[in-house]
Design brief:
Number of strands: 20
Order of helices and strands: EEEEEEEEEEEEEEEEEEEE
CATH topology of the largest domain: Jelly Rolls
CATH class of the largest domain: Mainly Beta
Radius of gyration: 27 Å
Number of helices: 0
């Protein structure tokens, strides 16, 4: 026929009519395609699964778009947090949720409240944080590291040297970690001075808004 075309698939020539505008060729797991969709056929086209593959369907300007869902969370603490004791690991807590979409804070059933940053969906996540440290003694050390599902993450620790008491120090960096659905990350810290705190603060008039003791954000990157 005049509108027939020849295609080659897997080294085998195949003859069929030319697709019309709006036609879709759908693979059928047999090295061939079936004509579907468009005005010629009522074959349903299923959307990608939301969640399991981090896929999301949105509509922008009337156009349906498929892409990775932007799961994210932003959390903070507006109170002082004191280390549990000298050389005693202590979990960082968050009492404020600023943003939450697929990422949320949760409590440890046998420990402090709101220490876990939990994800609803599998993926690779970037956890970023900044913490304001206020020592009560000079020449001390503070340590910050990552915990995954309750266990310390190897080679995730960082040591901060505290030279002056009463001077605030900033701990700020990020971790990228592959997680399964319902997994969580925690930040743990310790100091050789049992009076060290994570400090909030309020600057003088005209110098900006109040300062949280902890800021943490986590976003899906893959």
């Amino acid at each position: 026929m005049a509108d027939d075309i020849v295609t080659v698939w897997g080294g085998v020539p195949r003859i069929g009519r030319s697709p019309a505008v709006g036609d879709l060729l759908i693979g059928n797991n047999a090295s061939t395609f079936t004509l579907g969709g468009g005005a010629n056929n009522n074959t349903a086209i299923s959307q990608p699964a939301i969640g399991g593959d981090n896929m999301e369907v949105t509509s922008v300007g009337g156009v349906t778009r498929y892409g990775f869902a932007g799961y994210h969370g932003a959390f903070s603490s507006h109170v002082n947090q004191t280390v549990a004791g000298a050389a005693t690991p202590t979990l960082v807590q968050y009492e404020v949720t600023d943003l939450s979409y697929g990422v949320s804070i949760a409590s440890n059933p046998s420990g402090p409240a709101n220490t876990r940053i939990k994800v609803d969906y599998q993926g690779v996540y970037n956890l970023q944080f900044s913490i304001q440290v206020l020592p009560a003694s000079a020449n001390k050390k503070a340590y910050f590291w990552l915990k995954y599902n309750g266990s310390d993450v190897a080679w995730s620790n960082t040591e901060i040297d505290i030279k002056d008491n009463g001077t605030k120090y900033l701990a700020a960096w990020n971790f990228v970690y592959a997680m399964n659905a319902n997994d969580w990350l925690e930040l743990s810290w310790a100091s050789d001075d049992g009076t060290t705190i994570l400090s909030d603060g309020t600057p003088g008039a005209g110098l900006g808004p109040s300062i949280p003791s902890v800021i943490a954000t986590m976003c899906l990157v893959r």
